[in-house]
Design brief:
7-stranded mixed beta sheet, 24% strand
Length: 341
Amino acid sequence: MDLIVATPQGLFCPEGQFYIDPWRPVERAIITHGHSDHARWGMASYLCHTDTVPILKKRLGDVNVSGIGYSVETNVNGVKVSLHPAGHVLGSAQIRVEHKGEVWVASGDYKLEDDGTCVPFEPIRCHAFITESTFGLPIYRWRSPALVHADINAWWRGNADAGRASIMQAYGLGKSQRILKYLDPSIGPIICHGAVEPMNAVYRASGVSLPDTFMAGDIHDKAELSRAFVIAPPSATGSTWVKRFGNYSDAFASGWMQVRGRRRQRGVDQGFVLSDHADWPGLLQAIAATQAQRIFVTHGSTATLSRYLREQGLDARPIATQFGQDDDEVDDPPAPETVAS
């Protein structure tokens, strides 16, 4: 019997009687990270990394959640469980499950680059690896993040010199803090939307260094507003909140910006290719490092990645999940090949 199986409630470990990132209410949920397609309301109990605990409490309210550190082994109904860095967002974890010498790892979302805002990805050897594949196509190959951050600062500086604000659309958890960390505050003030600032506080409390930020109501000088870098969720587009900045240029940062036409679909002036998910080489590198012979591929380009891995001699197949579905906290929208139950 497989150690982890797909069920209508989510990924389930029958031996341990727990679920990993379930999408329907269950008794015991182990959570990879705080994005709301992986951490949903309604579970009787949650177990996650210590840094994810305050994220879940801010998002879900007064829930029964406990946290453990990375590589700390806990016993769940006779099954050994430990959490290991995924490098996706603060507190993100791969779930290692071991029973009778069999080891499975559920990756959650991950990337291999160290972005300075969360603990970098750690490959875990296992017999079976459940991997995401959000960008599981060979066309997705990320530039150096340092170059992208330099481009973002150059865009901001050019806008500030022209007397217009720079509005960056970014999700409140993860992408916003990653962008924020590498901004050059000498260019002008940095303003964060009310959906972003609470997560900034969580990151700072965990020890992540971020530049000083302001709320929109803190700055009344129009000249200062015209030099501001503004981080806001995509849902704020066209709102009265955005209109207070007057003349502005807007942008969106995502792996999808690598695809021609995506920026036009977003209706923004500028697109930056910056994702919190692994690109095609990153996926292959992470999978190879596990030395797993069985690979289960979830959300994204599951068919393409599975087929490629089978051609390399691995036992690889897609499994149905509801990760990456329409959700405003997911890093990027699902690719067309997403398999969903």
